[in-house]
Design a protein that fits this description.
heterodimer; A: 497 residues; alpha/beta; Rossmann fold; 2 domains; 6-stranded mixed β-sheet; 17 helices; B: 323 residues; mainly alpha; ABC transporter involved in vitamin B12 uptake, BtuC; two-stranded antiparallel ribbon; two-stranded antiparallel sheet
Chain lengths: 497, 323
């Protein structure tokens, strides 16, 4: 089991103005799970892109199965036995499961001219069954859940008989149960001698599968350790280069009066008779698993989706938001869970992104007051400590944490009565998380009501004053800070009595 | 991490500037080339001809630019030009005051734009299909109303002055309109809330909606502006030929799209500028004019314009994929 399968030695990759990888060495043994961790921008993805041939290193060498190795492109890497499963799936939504599994490798018939559909379906059925999945291979990919898509990606990697499979944040969209299943599969692969590279932000979950861990920071390799010889606080301090004193800067404030109230909110099959209330100066955490209806609830409150029935009050006044525009006028703000898809205009600059939706505040007769805007934007950048060379920087070039701060700043300093944060720290590094938590607390201090949706249990427990747990479109329980424990939340989230 | 951001910022600054500079350099190279091979090219008279010929393309490209930045495309421009041209001439022939006819015509252009925008933002039709439909509807209307015959203006001799008069006897009036509308459009696009929101909607419509922008309104506005510009171009063209021609301006939308993309607009939305539209329109105008002076047939002129469009967009793609 100690045979070294892959050796990347002194990899250097320089982009204009920045050293993305500085003599990083990394090795992978046969049948091990090797975690690769680090803050965003530490160089994890770049290292993987070098391995799979998306980038070519400026110096350094890769040895694979004892020989020198250089992938020309991801397909070449895959043909040679190295597969990568990305966060964004490489599946074609309008093709079936079977077609996706065998894409570009379809079994052929009739002198190799036609695709042998029968063989393809049969083989994929066998693969899926061996994998312990219950998915119809005729189903279109677009009808699958995120977890199912992920499983299909893995099956795809297996078709090509990979020696190495690299996972990039595989669990960020999975439920506990699905994560457990994924880990089972990883362990199975491991026992078959497949080596796994596992990139994740969720340090807690690594415990279940990881053999060794390598920490990257600012393009350098900090250290590689056996998992059993290291603790999570130690890892975090290695990642950020400093000891993190407290992960959650909790503030105990007394909740004010009820700012927002919703009763019997129902929307077809996703929201069933939901009643909640949010108080000023309080963080109401909403916990639950994937598909519990948390985001749908937020979107209903924000007027992004229409509801079938139910009533909402904002400060004792009935309201029925017809659009996000309308909800904002009523003093409600919403930070979407997927900041790239629903939050930011990635190709526009920091200036436009911060002011988006707010421009009319700084305009007279529709003409924008440039000077005032610049002042406001500069102030927000310093205030929220957004690391950007200028407000003219295109947002897609910022790190995840700074992108999130840009999004938060859009709603910051304006007098909102209710702010809904949907997964406020998804995919951002530890240091930036802390800053986001501090910002949320500052808003809370100002007396606004906050609803925070989060899939990260420690985050919900650490930040919330009160927790509402949802399961399959229903509220299954409410917990005060004193009652909130991981066990209690999980019990309600899976609706166990 | 921070360093990476600075360097990409410099790249970005360069990119925006480079975009304009490369187009401007291409323009200069073309002008130098044509002025060497044809002594007539740099004569004031010829330069004015170029500007006059470019004015229609530029004005329609202003409108198209709004639509393209909002991640749409407007294929109804050519038909709107023809429709507006026959409407203005018919009204003038019915003894309506010229100024009133023009205002009604612009209003008709507005309505066409609003309908396009409504089909796209409310009825969720793809812009390509919706405006292809309105293109055919309008062209059909123009032919039906006129019975496919031109409408000549014979009772109002001043009508042709709208496009044929020259300021100081040198600068054709359409060139003045092009300039004024250019400044107005640039102001609208860069300095007003509605203009900036066009960028936001084109860049990411759902994000724009969730940030509180009325995306339906913004998309309708982009098409409305395109409709107004096309109606105005129609009036100028009608004045130039002193008649309303139901079959005029076929394919002018292609010129407007070409000018926009040569000038750096991205068909994916969220990116483009009025200065780009002008530069793009002039590149096409100068190419046509220069080839004309070299006695290249019109057919080959169209051929070369096509090549320029393909090359310009490919060049832009290569450049933007580098970051």
């Amino acid at each position: 089991m100690n045979e070294v399968l892959l050796q990347m030695s002194k990899i250097k990759k320089i982009f204009p103005g920045v050293i993305a990888l500085n003599d990083v060495s990394f090795d992978l043994r046969k049948g091990e799970v090797h975690a690769l961790i680090g803050e965003n921008g530490a160089g994890k993805s770049t290292l993987m892109k070098v391995l799979t041939g998306i980038y070519h290193q400026d110096s350094g060498e890769i040895y694979f199965k004892g020989g020198k190795f250089q992938a020309k492109n991801p397909k070449d890497a895959q043909d040679k036995g190295i597969s990568m499963i990305h966060q964004e799936f490489n599946l074609v939504p309008d093709l079936t499961v079977a077609e996706n599994i065998f894409i570009a490798r379809e079994p052929r018939t009739f002198h190799n001219l036609l695709i042998d559909d029968k063989a393809m379906i049969l083989q994929s059925q066998i693969l899926i069954r061996d994998f312990g999945l219950e998915i119809d291979v005729h189903e279109l990919i677009s009808n699958l859940s995120v977890a199912e898509k992920q499983m299909i990606e893995i099956v795809k990697a297996l078709v090509t008989k990979s020696d190495i499979i690299a996972f990039d944040e595989p669990t960020s969209a999975l439920t506990e149960k699905e994560v457990a299943h994924l880990f089972e599969i990883i362990n199975k692969l491991k026992s078959e001698g497949v080596a796994i590279i596992y990139i994740s932000h969720r340090l807690e979950e690594l415990d279940a599968i990881v053999d060794r861990v390598t920490v990257l920071r600012d393009g350098c390799c900090v250290a590689t350790h056996e998992w059993k010889n290291i603790t999570i606080p130690k890892l975090i301090s290695m990642m950020v280069g400093r000891e993190m004193k407290e992960q959650f800067p909790t503030q105990y404030t007394t909740a004010g009066e009820v700012v927002f109230r919703a009763e019997h909110i129902t929307r077809s099959n996703v929201l069933k008779d939901i009643s909640i209330q949010a108080k000023g100066g309080e963080i109401l955490g909403i916990a639950g698993l994937m598909g519990a209806g948390r985001t749908e609830l937020a979107r209903a409150i924000f007027g992004a989706d229409k509801i079938d029935s139910g009533t909402m009050w904002i400060q004792d006044k009935k309201f029925k938001p017809s659009s996000p525009y309308d909800a904002i006028k009523h003093g409600i703000a919403y930070l979407p869970e997927d900041r790239k898809k629903d939050g930011l205009m990635l190709d526009l600059d920091v200036f436009d992104n911060i002011l988006c939706g707010n421009l009319s505040t700084y305009a007279q007769y529709g003409v924008i007051n440039d000077k005032q805007c610049t002042q406001v934007v500069s102030k927000k950048i310093t205030d929220l400590n957004i690391k950007t060379p200028s407000y003219r920087q295109i947002v897609k070039y910022l790190s995840g944490g700074n992108q999130q701060k840009v999004l938060v700043s859009r709603w910051f300093c304006k007098n909102f009565r209710l702010i809904i944060f949907d997964e406020p720290t998804r995919g951002i590094d530890v240091g930036a998380k802390l800053e986001i938590y501090n910002l949320i607390n500052r808003i809370k201090e100002s007396g606004a009501a906050i609803i925070m949706i989060s899939s990260e249990l420690p985050e919900v427990l650490g930040m919330s004053d009160r927790i509402v747990v949802m399961c399959e479109g229903r509220v299954t329980g409410q917990l005060s800070r004193a009652e909130a424990s991981p066990e209690n939340v999980m019990r309600l989230a899976s609706n166990l009595k | 991490m921070y360093k990476k951001e600075i360097s990409s910022y410099i790249l970005k600054l360069n990119k925006d500037l480079m975009e304009k500079v490369t187009v401007a350099i291409a323009l200069l190279i073309m002008m130098t080339f044509f002025s060497i091979v044809s002594p007539y090219f740099l004569k004031i008279n010829n330069l004015m001809t170029i500007a006059l010929q470019t004015s229609i393309t530029a004005i329609t490209a202003y409108g198209m630019m709004f639509v393209i930045i909002s991640a749409g495309v407007d294929l109804s421009i050519g038909s709107t030009i023809a429709f507006s041209g026959i409407m203005v001439t018919i009204m003038i022939n019915h003894n309506l005051p010229t100024w009133l006819s023009i205002i009604i015509c612009i209003a008709l252009g507005t309505i066409v734009g609003v309908l396009n925008g409504f089909l796209i933002s409310r009825m969720k039709l793809p812009p390509f299909i919706a405006t292809l439909g309105s293109q055919m509807v309008l062209r059909g209307l123009a032919l039906v109303i006129t019975d496919a015959r031109p409408v000549y203006v014979d009772n109002v001799p001043t009508f042709k002055l709208i496009a044929q008069a020259r300021l100081f006897n040198v600068i054709p009036l359409p060139v003045i309109y092009m300039t004024i509308l250019g400044f107005l459009s640039a102001f609208l696009l860069r300095k007003t809330v509605i203009g900036r929101n066009v960028f936001a909607v084109g860049s990411n419509e759902e994000a724009a909606r969730l940030s509180g922008i009325n995306t339906v309104k913004i998309r309708i506005f982009a098409f409305l502006y395109s409709g107004i510009m096309a109606a105005f171009a129609g009036i100028i063209l009608a004045s130039r030929v002193n008649s309303g021609q139901p079959t005029i301006a076929v394919g002018y939308e292609a010129n407007a799209i070409a000018a926009s993309v040569i000038g750096g607009a991205s068909m994916r939305g969220g990116h483009g500028s009025i200065s780009g539209a002008i530069l793009g329109a002039f590149i096409m105008g100068i190419l046509m004019n220069g080839l004309n002076l070299l006695n290249v047939s019109q057919n080959w002129q169209i051929f070369s314009t096509g090549l320029v469009v393909i090359f310009a967009v490919y060049f832009d793609k290569v450049r933007s994929s580098k970051d």
